[in-house]
Amino acid sequence: MSKPGVRLIAVTAALATAGLTAAPVATAATITETAPTTTAATTAPAAGDPFYAYDGSEPLSSFAPGAVLKTRTLQYHLVGVPTPLKAIQLLYRSTDAQGRPSANVTTVVRSLTGDGSKAVSYQSFYDSLNPEDGPSRAIAGNLTLGGVIPNAEALFMAPLLAKGYTLVIPDTQGQRANFAAGPEYGTNTLDSIRAATRSAETGLSTGTRFGLMGYSGGAIATNWAAAMAPAYAPDVNRQLVGFAEGGLLVAPAHNLKYVDGSLVWSGVIPMAVIGVSRSYGIDLKQYLNDYGRQVYEELEHGSIVDALGHYPGLTWKKMAKPQYADANSVPEFVDAVNRINLGSAATPTVPGFIAQGNGGVIEGTFANPPGIGTGDAVMVAGDVRALARQYCATGNDSIAYRQFNLLSHNGVPVVWAPLAIDWLDDRFAGRTAPSDCGDIPAGNSLAPEQPVPAS
Question: Contact at 8 Å (CB) between 134 and 176?
Fold first, then answer.
């Protein structure tokens, strides 16, 4: 069997172990497409698929965020078998990490029992540096190794559809796959909701109520969208009933120190370096040694499945030139990680349900750095507690927090998903949101990182 085949089986097995047995492959059929009257190319299209290209005559900046640029409808297939569901895909205008106009894609799946009055924006944890791994590509039939993850998440989405929720599934990382760029995840998610409510084909409107839901990489998008909505998209904020998330990245500089040298998750270090470089147009490669540049090039278009377990014991120090052994000696790095620190972002105004594991030793992360502590193997529990407490202290007392001390990052979703769906059901039903404010244990400092001199 080929190496890619072996890895695909391994990834599927890992997901099954976590209770997320990979869902069948989505394939596209019966596609109808409506072209925009005006578009302009600023992003690269998916290979062989012109739908992703913004190619009209008007500048992208002339469109408001959330404007629909293209529409197509696909019959949603699972393992080549057509389902009664239609998947409506929209190319829409958004904003990237540097505040520039961008074009992105979202997918809307209408429930057979719903009436369009309630919807869940589901943010995928497809964590990748390759745009081909995005959920819209998986739904349209392009299954890459990284794309197996969006298909596995069908197990989370099926119960929502059965309950009558329309699903909106944005490609949160954008068309350049800007991994870990939280603010861009947020704008892509909020403008996806705008686009979905402006398209006649979706059955949604500005009167539709929305819940936000996501785990891990999906939690990055979920929390940034909730935090940014009041200022960036107050129209969307008025439609939100709440956000439900688990396994959250809060202060990325802490996470890199936590996974430094771990057995499985250390590959996140180069992924973050690449994502930060790409998102903010900076060159962190110049600070890497020969080995660091080799790893950078190996993962430059890779996904989380290319990183997990492939670099056991990897540390930032092993990748950096000697004088930059401390990542905080790289000014561009410090500036970038401070931009994506949720502790410096605004407090959401809608209720939130936040879950976090703390059994990281199960997945080979044994570190307990001073001021950072333990986590679920990749996410830092003390950071998540600190953020939840910060929300409580800054005006949002509708925050529910659950910490699972015996579960790791891949174990928590089994418990989190049904709790999150029940919590969202209650918000749509108008029930008072529960609060754990006052009972959440103390966490870490979320203060911005400070630069240090190069040695």
Answer: no
Chain centre distance of CA 231: 20
229 vs 408: CA distance, rounded Å: 30
Prediction pTM value: 0.90
Distance CA 340, CA 338 (A): 5
Per DSSP, 54 falls in state -
Radius of gyration of the chain (CA): 21
Q: What is the pLDDT of residue 80?
A: 44
pLDDT tens digit sequence for 361-416: 999 999 999 999 999 999 999 999 999 999 999 999 999 999 999 999 999 999 99
Using the predicted structure, report yes or no on whether residue 15 has a pLDDT greater than 80.
no
The CA distance from 61 to 259, in Å, is 40
Residue 217 and residue 239: Cα distance in Å, rounded? 23
CA distance 113 to 408: 35
Cα 196 to Cα 34: distance, rounded to the nearest angstrom: 15
Q: Please tell me the total number of residues recorded for the chain in this structure.
A: 455
pLDDT averaged over the chain? 89
Res 164 pLDDT > 90: yes
How far from the centroid of its chain's Cα atoms is residue 88's Cα?
Answer: 20
DSSP element (H, E) containing 91: strand 81-95
End-to-end Cα separation, the chain, in angstroms = 48
Dihedrals φ, ψ of 264, to 5°? -110, -45
What is d(CA 220, CA 354) in angstroms, rounded to the nearest whole number?
Answer: 12
Tell me how far apart the alpha carbons of residues 27 and 137 are, in angstroms, rounded to a whole number: 9
Cα distance between residue 409 and residue 17, in whole Å = 12
DSSP annotation of 51: G
Q: Residue 152 half-sphere exposure, CB side, CA atoms within 13 Å?
A: 28
Which residues lie across from 82 on neighbouring strands? 77
Retrieve residue 12's tokens. 């599927």
Q: Is 313 left (phi over 0), alpha (psi -120 to 50) or beta?
A: left
